[in-house]
Specification:
Layout (H helix, E strand, L loop, with lengths): L15 E5 L2 E4 L4 E4 L2 H4 L8 H11 L12 H13 L4 E5 L2 H18 L7 E5 L8 H7 L2 H4 L9 E4 L4 H7 L4 E6 L2 E2 L5 E2 L2 H14 L2 E5 L23 E4 L10 E5 L1 H4 L15 H14 L4 H22 L4 E5 L9 E5 L3 H10 L2 E2 L1 E3 L3 E4 L7 H32 L1
Parallel strand pairs: 3-15, 5-6, 5-7, 7-10, 10-11
Antiparallel strand pairs: 1-2, 2-3, 4-12, 8-9, 11-12, 13-14, 14-17, 16-17
Length: about 400
């Protein structure tokens, strides 16, 4: 008999009742170090006093009015994002998938409005993950996620990451733009190189294409800058973001230049909940912290500490871990451990050590703690992963012994 809550997730048998910073407490009072951060979403950790106060205060005033009226909280948040980024205008929604849908619509609409209605196709990349809507499943291109949902939505072409020759070969007269994650999270923390991002910008300028960046996971300070593309020194045409922007409260955003944004005229796009007073109060509270002088430097420094600890772990446990993955210029707090064993095994062993992580493709363990972690917590996470590797090793050795005996 099916459960009342649809079984669409393989949930760990854990239920958390409260949190503090980088720590979560179960209903039976076990304490876990959270280096998953709700899949890179709890950017300020748990129970951050400024975020909690902002949400509580706004909830006591007005939570939702719809976009039929002005929303001062959204106007303020948009202005602050514009001031801190490449963008001229911002559209708020509820999630990363919605932000990516809106980004594709903006790119197509801008091409049509400037005399190129035939330009509708978007070049995407192998290993991408852009969300779970039907169109974004097609943009992702992963056969496993598409299975059982019928024909993929048209308009998406896929090429290998960091392969400029393949990109140029894919550009045609009906290409509208390019959509890329500066760091792919779901497929195993695979980063686009700085040079590749710069070459994409140049190719878009050469062919009259739009460059859209999916920074749902790697944006909002996770790499030590507000957006990961800043490390490449490029100016995109449109960027999607979500996850950490609300610190755990549902919020997404599309940031765009005026040349793109001005074509989304009234009636061309919309949302019921997006950008409501409560969500934007949360977003403003997150920006209050993330844009404080020195905060992003803190993220970069903690990233260096964490990467060093994980690299030492690879050297200590080469039978379990192969390498550390992340951005070439700045590791920040979006790192991956490539495992020599199935990632599910090391993730489960980490749970036994009261450490929360996130699995990814290619047997990579994502390590994405809240941006407020300290050095001691980074080293503690590595120590717990070392003990997790020790748990895994005897099981692997026994499995090999049994396999040898059977043969």
């Amino acid at each position: 008999m099916i459960a009342p809550l649809m079984p669409t997730y393989n949930r760990a048998d854990l239920a958390f009742e409260r949190g503090e910073g980088a720590w979560l407490y179960t209903v039976d009072q076990r304490r876990f170090l959270d280096f998953g951060a709700g899949i890179a979403t709890s950017s300020l950790g748990h129970n951050h006093p400024r975020l909690v106060a902002a949400i509580a205060a706004q909830a006591g005033r007005v939570m939702h009015v719809s976009n039929l009226y002005r929303v001062p909280q959204a106007e303020r948040l948009a202005a602050r994002l514009v001031d801190a980024s490449f963008a001229d205008s911002v559209f708020f929604c509820n999630s990363g998938a919605e932000a990516n849908e809106g980004m594709v619509k903006m790119m197509r609409r801008a091409q049509a409005a400037t005399g190129h209605a035939e330009r509708t196709r978007i070049i995407c990349f192998d290993g991408a993950f852009h969300g779970r809507t039907l169109a974004m499943l097609s943009a992702t291109g992963n056969a496993k996620y598409l299975s059982g949902f019928g024909e993929p939505a048209p308009g998406f072409d896929h090429v290998p990451l960091n392969n400029m020759n393949a990109v140029r070969d894919a550009i045609g007269p009906d290409t509208a733009g390019i959509m890329i994650e500066p760091i792919q999270g779901e497929s195993g923390v695979n980063a686009a190189t700085v040079r590749f991002l710069q070459e994409l910008r140049a190719a878009c300028d050469e062919y009259g294409l739009l460059l859209g960046l999916d920074e749902v996971q790697c944006g909002m300070g996770r790499t030590g800058r507000l957006f990961a593309h800043e490390w490449a020194g490029i100016r995109p045409d449109v960027v999607s973001t979500a996850k950490g922007i609300g610190g755990g409260f549902p919020l997404g955003a599309i940031l765009a230049t005026e040349a793109v944004a001005r074509h989304l005229t009234p009636g061309s796009h919309g949302t019921t909940f997006g950008g409501n007073p409560l969500a934007c109060a949360a977003g403003n509270a997150v920006l209050d912290v993330v844009l404080e002088p020195g905060f992003l430097d803190h993220v970069a420094a903690r990233g260096r500490t964490l990467k060093a600890a994980l690299q030492a772990l690879v050297e200590e446990r080469p039978d379990v871990f192969e390498t550390v993955r992340g951005h070439e210029s700045a590791p920040g707090l979006m790192l991956g451990l490539k495992c020599r064993v199935p990632v599910a095994e090391i993730q489960q062993a980490a749970l036994q050590e009261h450490l929360l992580t996130v699995g990814a493709g290619d047997d990579v363990l994502r390590v994405v703690p809240p941006l407020v972690v300290d050095d001691a917590e980074c080293r503690e996470a590595a120590a717990r992963l070392s003990r997790a590797a020790e748990r895994v090793r005897p099981r692997r050795q026994e499995a090999r012994r049994l396999q040898a005996a059977a043969s």
